[in-house]
Each structure stands twice: as structure tokens, then as C-alpha cells.
């Protein structure tokens, strides 16, 4: 029988104090309250495996989730992992309004919290379908590159209340949760990218429609589309 707690462990007093201080400062900020600084590539926190969340933040977890939501939307982005704001815990948030008719299958993804997420490709009688598209990251500001990822994944983990989930996602929502879950394993999207496809946001805009950018870039930059 449960003892009524969502998480098995007691809060970590030192971590609670550090995170509370960070959040207090963020929510007291005028103009953009609750928006946290986003860690950029090169900071070691982005290359460490995040610690599984077991209750270390106690009552600070909802405040962190809200600050991460505000930071993600302010950037703007469609996902953000706790290491990207300097907190090495396995927590991420994501949301995307979607783009109707987009060939990348960019269906809406309602706001959600991923705690201790894991994903695995969904097989349909053989090798999982993969799709190659341009992908960016708030921690690699100003740049994008082509990444081939499974089109469908099975995602498991917990929500912010400790409730378990086990579901299959497709298309762009599947790409978002893969990207954020990779952050919690110390990986950046560049680790999976086609190096020759790397481009600035400005130059990517020259390729036309975002859903066709990877194909045009492959021709103009001279690389095979990864599969």
C-alpha cells in the first residue's frame, strides 16, 4: 500500500535550497518572470547523465516545471530538459502547437512533463521507419542540422505527479521526446546529426519550406540524407 507520497525519497535539502534560490531569483525578475538562463553547449552539465528523479526537490518540483515551461515558451522552443537550465535531474517539459499539413507529421503536442523518460523505436515487422529532418536546440543557439530518427517510439516514464505512462508517439512529437530524453542521457542532437548539413537559422531560411529543407540541403550542401 502506498504511503501517499508521489516519490519514494525525501527531498535533498542542499539541492532544494540551491534550486529554490534559482527559482526565487527568476520569478522575481521584472519583465520575464520565471524565465531561466539556458545553458549553452560546452557546459559539462549537458554531457552528464542526469540523476533519476526520486523526490529530491519536494515542493520545488512544481515551481521548477513552471519555470521550465515559461523558459521554453520564451525562447521559443518545443522542449526543454532540466540540465539545460543547469539542474542535473531527469526532468523535461515539451509542447508544440503543431503545423497542419506539414510533411514532417508535426501534429500538436499538448504541454506535458517527462520524468525519468525512456524511449525505444517501434518496430513494425522489421527495421523501424526513420525520418531525416532539420533539428535545432536551445542549447546550441542559432544552428540546426539534419538528424535521422525513428518515426515512431514507445515512451515510458512518469509525469510530475509520479504517475507512470507508457505510450507510442509518431512523427514530430516522437522527435521532440527523443531529443529531450537524449538530453537526460548527456547527448546533444549534434551527436546524431549529419555534420555537413549544419547551418545557421538564417541560411536554413533560404532553403524554403521547413518540411522540405533537408532534401534541398542534401543536394545543395552535398551529403546523402541519413537513414
TrEMBL record:
Q: SUPFAM superfamilies in the record, alphabetically?
A: Peptide deformylase
Q: How is the cofactor bound?
A: Binds 1 Fe(2+) ion.
Task: Tell me which residues this entry annotates as catalytic.
Answer: 180
Q: Which UniProt keywords apply?
A: Hydrolase, Iron, Metal-binding, Protein biosynthesis
Presence of the UniProt keyword Iron in the record: yes
The UniProt record gives the binding positions of Fe cation as 137, 179, 183
Q: What does the record give as the reaction this protein catalyses? A: N-terminal N-formyl-L-methionyl-[peptide] + H2O = N-terminal L-methionyl-[peptide] + formate
UniProt keyword annotation of Lipoprotein present: no
Q: What is this protein called?
A: Peptide deformylase
Instruction: State the organism named in the record.
Output: Isoptericola chiayiensis
Q: What is the lineage of its organism?
A: Bacteria, Bacillati, Actinomycetota, Actinomycetes, Micrococcales
